[in-house]
Amino acid sequence: MESIDFLASEKQKVWKIPSGELTNLPYLEKIASLPIEGKSVVISTGMATIEEIKDALSVLEKNGTKKEDLMYLFLLLSVSNAFSNIATKKYFGTGM
Fold first, then answer.
1. 43 pairs with which residues across the strands?
2. What's the CA gap between 26 and 74, in Å, rounded?
3. What integer is the mean pLDDT of 47-75?
4. pLDDT grade for 90, boundaries at 50, 70 and 90
5. Percent of the chain residues past pLDDT 90, beyond the cut
6. Phi first, then psi: what are they for 39, rounded to 5°?
7. How many CA atoms lie within 13 A of 14 on its CB side?
8. Could you tell me if 63 and 50 are in contact, meaning their C-beta atoms sit under 8 angstroms apart?
9. Cβ contacts of 10 within 8 Å, gap of 6 or more
10. Residue 46, pLDDT above cutoff 80
11. Are 31 and 17 in contact (CB under 8 A)?
12. Residue among 66, 61, 54, 68 nearest 23 (CA)
């Protein structure tokens, strides 16, 4: 987590959570709790399950990240997936 400390010392405003770190809850807690004015967090969901995404969002919000400061990057694994079947649409209630 040395890299987080370094970027925080530079007052990094936009933080991207790579999909491979989505389940690393201490990593999420540390980024969420950084006292940086105007901080935004971008979450890459990769192949995460809805439960993993919910857990990550819960940790981020409980540790100081506001919902309006979150952005999401979603991945489609196959173009044959119909938009009505995308789990993110069911969870977030929007047509992505």
1. 17, 72
2. 22
3. 92
4. low
5. 65
6. -70, 135
7. 5
8. no
9. none
10. yes
11. yes
12. 54
